[in-house]
Amino acid sequence: MHKHVLHDPSANSEITRRVETADSTHDQERSFSAAPDRSHAITGSSAHIGALQRLSLSGQQNVLLHLNRTQGNRQVQRLAQAMQQRNIARTHTDASAVVQRVPGIEEVDEIDDYLPNCVLDLEKPDRKTYKRDQGKIKGESDTDLFYRDGDGPLVPITVAMVNAFFDPRYEGFEKISGPDWSKNCEDYAKASGFGAKIGDYTSSATLIPLVRDQGTYVLELSHHWMRVHNTNGSSVTIRQKDGESAVYERTYDSVETAAAYILTKRGAGGTVYATG
Fold first, then answer.
1. In terms of pTM, does the model score above 0.85?
2. CA-to-CA distance for 31 and 64, rounded, in angstroms?
């Protein structure tokens, strides 16, 4: 861990900020300081700007606001405003992003025979997944999962990565949850009840009669599961997830349009079950 020390030319005091920066195994120390008689260099030097940008978001704001208050430098003011807007935009773009320290390989455990869909690459046969050792480190990642290729560096698997992979696959659907690593499509479809088999279908003509009545159904497709809720005999809501994805939902205005989507999703047919 490093302390960023900034000298106050008017009060001759110090502001100390602790900022976590790291490589793949440990924290490194970095310092950021400005001489009292060279306040102009803070905004004119790309090195100083780069140092500011490497601080945490709160560290950037604290340093810049202090300079703004004590020195009245207009360039500092403009830089503070620009960095604030950048940080706001980044927060709005990806509210789930987490700034984290990537652990060393000794701090994670390998997960046998599992690769999340969002990092699955058949051209990377030596890619493996790792989970943070909760006994050593907690709360530094939004998923606590990582992957690496062979002996390469650990790469965080983030919520943003999961959403970026699955969102385009569910265009027109509303995302009603965050990613869930504890349930796959089958687990989710059966979670609220799973009952007797109603029948098999191979086309819209054979599927529609099975889900025509008001109620909730569990559908087993080819290599996929989903929940289908017929609200009033016509309006049909489909809810589903894939692997580690979020849950996606869409309501269709008729059984026919819902059935057409289901057959588009998996054209080989499937089985309809009751929910209990």
1. no
2. 15
